[in-house]
Amino acid sequence: MNDTNVSHLSSNGVLEALAAELGQLTPETRKAATYVLENPNDVGVCSIREMASAAAVKPNTLVRMARTIGFDGYDDFREPFREEIRRGNLNFPDRARWLQSLGQSGQLGGLYADMVESAIRNIEATFAGTNAEKMKAAADDIVASRNTFVLGVGVNNSNARNFAYLADMASYNIWAIPRSGGVASDDLSRANEQDVLIAITCKPYRTEVVEAAVLAKEQGATLIGISDSPASPVITSADHGFVIGSDTPQFFPSSVALIALLETLMAFVIADAPAEVIDNIDRFHERRHRLGIYQP
């Protein structure tokens, strides 16, 4: 039995320790260990019974396997693999399966805590990576532009449209694209050096967003790139780049930090605007009250 302290090991460290013990295991335990080594993504998302069935062994065999490298039991053994998922290091289907396993095993309290922690961490990381000067520089270009196009697809489409919706109150020429029935390249066909494109995409990067960013730059437009990596193609080619935190226990990237960034950028746009913009916002709401859109 391995007496090494394993509480600090990463999932890769656990796999290395298990591989080192492989030759010393009984045939059944070796069968379980071999399955784990060949299917490490299953460890964090499958129950012990599911793993045992897939490996064609009994659940107790997995417990013995975990103990051979120093863990108290199988739950302790798989905790580093679950931590990898919490950090967002597995693909969408694996993370969805993990969420279902939490619901089935009564661990939603831990999921709740992880969601809160990741949301706060994403916002902190996002704003630690930028500053007021960078935000103002991007806002200056938006205010000075003839048109600003905001491009997001998938889950980011609603975020782009919300940004454009808020801008509409101030009577800015800020448009969410692609427009209904069209494609982004058509919306940008007349864009030039007087215009701005805000391009939003996170891993895995959407082809149409990356291509639109390239097109906008070729036509002389200013590019504001928002993504979850400094290596993102919409960041590396941007005039103004903002890297957001998007890690989450969910099976899709978190939008919390993106929304916070866009709200802050809109605040800078309004703060940077001439006085008549505030009058436009007041008239917008006065009209809604007059038409009965708001409850008295």
From TrEMBL:
Keywords attached to this Swiss-Prot or TrEMBL record, sorted alphabetically, are: DNA-binding, Transcription, Transcription regulation
Pfam families associated with the record: HTH_6, SIS
GO biological processes: carbohydrate derivative metabolic process
Q: Which Gene3D superfamilies would you find in this protein's record?
A: Glucose-6-phosphate isomerase like protein, domain 1, Winged helix-like DNA-binding domain superfamily/Winged helix DNA-binding domain
Q: Which GO terms describe its molecular function?
A: carbohydrate derivative binding; DNA binding; DNA-binding transcription factor activity
Q: Which residues form the HTH rpiR-type domain?
A: 12-88
| Domain SIS per the UniProt entry, residue ranges | 138-281
- The protein here is known as MurR/RpiR family transcriptional regulator
